[in-house]
Predict the 3D structure of the following.
Amino acid sequence: MQNYRHGDIRLKRIEFIPEESTKTEESYKYIVAHGEATGHKHCLESSNIQVWLKDDAIYLVLENTGILTHQEHNRINIHPGCYEVIHEREYDPFSKEHRQAYD
């Protein structure tokens, strides 16, 4: 299965959207993540993007190829399919805690 890494964001290919997920949006443009430190954003564009939520998880369905962009990363083409959005985590050895990685 195809996975895509784009800075601190990963799109993990999945077979299907989990049951009991709720469709919250359908658009041609979706901001996958905002950069907390820089104000930049990971933006996905395609002819039709469906956004689904279940608990704290975000799932995306692309019917056609999408383009993922960010001001500091190369743009990448995303194949059609179902994806789980994963915000990478990092370990802070001083606080001994895991936390979301910030862009």
